[in-house]
Structure formats: structure tokens, C-alpha cells
Amino acid sequence: MRGNVEKGVAELPAKRATPLRNAAFRRFVTASLISAAGSAMAPLALAYSVIEQGGGTGALGVVLATTTVPTVLFLLVGGVLADRMSRSRLLFLGNLLAAAAQGALAVVVAIGHATTVSIAVCGFVSGTAVAFTVPAAQGAVAQIVPAEQLQQANALLRLPGNAVKVLGPAVGGGVVALSGPAWALACDALTFAVAALLLLGLRLDAPLGVTSALSDLREGWAGFWSRTWLWTYTVAGTVLVAAWLAGFQLLGPVVAAEQYAGARDWGLVQGAFAAGLLAGTVVCLRWRPYRLLAVAVVAGLPLAVPLLVMGWGLPLPWLLLATLLAGVGLDVAIVAWTTAFQQHVPQGELGRMGAFNSVGERLAIPIGYLLTALAAGTWDNRTVLVACAALVVAAAVLNLCVRDVHRINATRD
Predict the structure, then answer these.
(1) Which residues contact 265 (CB under 8 A, 6 or more apart)?
(2) Rounded-to-integer distance, Cα 390 and Cα 399, Å
(3) What is the mean pLDDT of residues 315-338?
(4) Which of 19, 145, 272, 321 registers the highest number of CB atoms within 10 A of its CB?
(5) What is the pTM of this model?
(6) Separation CA 84–CA 349 (nearest Å)
(7) Residues 287, 290, 295, CA angle at the centre, nearest 5°?
(8) Rounded to an integer, what distance in angstroms lies between the CA atom of residue 171 and that of residue 390?
(9) CA-CA distances (angstroms) from residue 60 to 63, 79, 165, 198?
């Protein structure tokens, strides 16, 4: 069920064929790169938009919450639609909606009429757009690329995105410093619009016929629950992501200010992590493991190491090395998991299964931050970091004890 996609070189021998020979995949990669380039500048521009209109930490927290909440609320709807509609059309509409939201935000910031409410409304629309594009994207890749090329395709999709993560924030900072946040937001809107037009040209067919949306959702939940490897990985991933974000993103900057040189050293740590992600993508381009899901689980274990390094108060070089390894492991885990998911879930269920998986991992963000805030009132930061590392290890080890995890292996040529 590939749809009327632009064909690549299906006639070529498997050893010579690569995803980049497929015109539809090249279009998809280009759209992803353009969109990622704009999105890398957006967080900094958004923060300074709030600051410039007089908002403080509370206002920024409200804006970030209104961006995240609709994604969680509407993901299941997006998953159902991704199995009922043309995924290329859904991606087109999602990117177009994001372009409209960022464009409107750029205008209100440029004319000096931005308020916390107006910024939050635009953020809500952007978060809603994400809810509809995330489930469709994984299914679209599986429609475009043959099963045996999916790992390479997923790695190629991650490569430009990870490169942008290294350069994007610096470019965004320069744009905001020289021209103000409105221009950076306008650039983000433009990249979404260009990506939308590219994605519309894919013309992928809808995986399923039109049936009852509620019936599709019930069947989707039954399919999700029947795949032990899928729901156990989702539960373990929720715990792991919550512990990692709470320890690294929330407590990391605080600990850097206490025992390292503050923002300067934390910037180096973030750079090491981005470099690790990029290196992990390169690894995935060369290495094609057979036990995909087991590799995905094990590759998450290095995320515990930077948390332990900070918790034990080790010097900065150790933290940089640990963070680099964590980045490598995380990217390998993401590519291996995505490939296993695409190869072992039928086309007509990819949207809903992806939505159920994403809801769990996105709920980890507020859960992790809330539990950390509560724990910080009882324990010191170093103890919380060690506890977060222990949760990462426990989630991975317990997941490895699930028999089905070792049965989800790669489809060979």
C-alpha cells in the first residue's frame, strides 16, 4: 500500500538501492530539513517575545504549557486521522497550520501588540499542528521507503535535523540579537510554508477506508494493548524520558551553576550532547543491527551516565564525555525503535499506534518536572540526579526482561 508516490529505483538490486535514490524520499527529507531549520530558531525567539512584552518566568511557563498541552490532547485524534486520510495531505495541513500560527505571532510581535495571551494562543495552534503531523510522519516514511531500507531512511532523516540542532540555536540567537524575535519567528513561518508545499507533492493514498472514528480508536487501543513489546516499551520510555528530562534539562543548569562555571560550561555540555546525537546518526548509517528493539532499549542506558556524573560531582571533562555518549546512545535508540515500529506495525495502524506511544512519552514531560519539583523539597539536587539515573537504568533493565522485546528484529533484504 504505497500510494501514488514518486517511484525511486525499485528495479535496482537491493544492495545498490538507497532511500536517497527515491525522489519521494528526497522530497520528504528536504521538507524535514527546511522545517527543522526554522524550528531550531523558534524557542529562543519565543522566549524573547515573552520577555520583550514584560513577561517573566510565570508568563513563559504559561506559553510553554499552552504549546505542549494541545499536542497531548489531540495526538490520538491525529493518530486516527493518519490512518484514515492521505498522510501527505495531513502533513501539508499541519505544516500550513503551523506556518499560520508562527506568521501571526511574528506579526503581533513586530507591531508591538504581543501579550502573554496572544503568544499563548499562537502556541496552542502550533501545538495542535504538531499533534496532527507527528503520527502522520512515521507512517509516511513507511509508505515511501521499502521495509529493508527503513533504518537507513530514519537515520538520513535524523542527520540534517541533528546538524541543525548544533547550528540552529546559534543562528537563531544571531537573528534575534540583530533583528529581534519577530524576524526569527517569520523565518520559522516561512520554513513551515515551504515544507507544506513540498509535502503536498508526495500524494500518498489514505491507508484505510472511511469508517467510524470511534471504532478506529477502539480497534487501535486493542491493537496497541495486544502488542506487549509496544506498550511495555512505551511505559518504559515514559519513565526513562521523565527521568532524563527532569535530571538533565531541569536540574542540569542548576547543578552547572553550583559546581561548574554556570552558563558557559552548560553550553559546552549541550554542545557535546548535540554532537553525540549527530555521531549516533552516523553510526546508524553504517550499522544495521538485527535485534532492533533490544538495541533500542540498551542504547537508552547511557542516558543515566551524565546524571550520575553530576550527582557524584565529577569534573567537567567527565561530564562532557558522558553527555557525548548519551547523545550517541539516544540517537541509536531512536533510529532502532522507529525502524522496528515501522517494520512490525501494519500500514493501516501506524498512525494510531504511533499516537498511543507518543502520548505516553509526552506526558513524561510534565510528570518528570512535577515529581522533581516535589523531590527537591525533600532531597538535595545531587540525590535527585542519582535517583533519576537509577530510574533510567531500572526502566531499561526491566524492559529487557520482556520476552517479546527480543522477538522484534530487523527485516533483511
Answers:
(1) 256, 316
(2) 14
(3) 95
(4) 145
(5) 0.80
(6) 10
(7) 75
(8) 36
(9) 5, 29, 22, 33
